[in-house]
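Task: fold both queries, return tokens.
Query 1:
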Amino acid sequence: MRFILGVLLSVVLYTFSFAETTTTELLDEAQNSIKAAFESGCPTLAPYEYYKAETYYYIAREETSKLNTKAGNAAAMKAIEWALKAMAKRYGEE
């Protein structure tokens, strides 16, 4: 399970290491992070972190649909951060 967290963290760091990451890529990465958290059982074992990640993802989609890409990107990054926190808490690595 630590391997999964390591892979997710490396993907996130790789994604954010380039300055020209598109909003669509950030939204896709946020969605994938939330999906991974869901599949690992975070809604029941780390509900606060999981649902906070989900909420940030919805905010990111809403802001992006209004063409506010800076706020959408920031919310997508927060969604990824909280999804990773949920997985860390789920596996006891707070």
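Query 1 returned. Query 2:
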Amino acid sequence: MMLALFSTLLFIPYMVIAVAAYTHGADMESLQKFGVLRTIQAIQNSPVTDRSDDLDQPGNILIYYRFGCGDCEAIYDCLKAEVAGKENIYWVASRQSEGQKLLQKYTVSEVPAGVIIQNDGMYISHVLCSPVYDDADEKGGIQQLDIYALNRLLDLQKRVG
């Protein structure tokens, strides 16, 4: 009986974390691969996925990200601040079923990336991070938000509306 109670006490917090991770874009592979602490870190550094049937509309900007992606996490706070209060910008988890459907129509080469849907059904995409190199860093630098790419998408959005 004590073992069952102990198991339940461990299981409930894990399920709460798993549900929170799912709302932030986690897929089953991520939940199986990440430990509890890494999952919590990924939750803190990723948005809540937008779930709506209206994402596929002209003038919308879709921001594709992957739960647990280092580059996505590196630019998240800055990107979130830049798009705060702006309309028709949606966060799309690239590994969840809704994101997979949108990726079939509006493809990107990597994440994090933004897509602006145009009136004619066409779209333009931009990768939203770029490396910053340091002479001491031989691994390719750290990632920062590519503000030029984001502003280009925002300018294009004004033209669609």
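Both queries returned. Flag for query 2: The chain has two domains: 2-44, 61-160.
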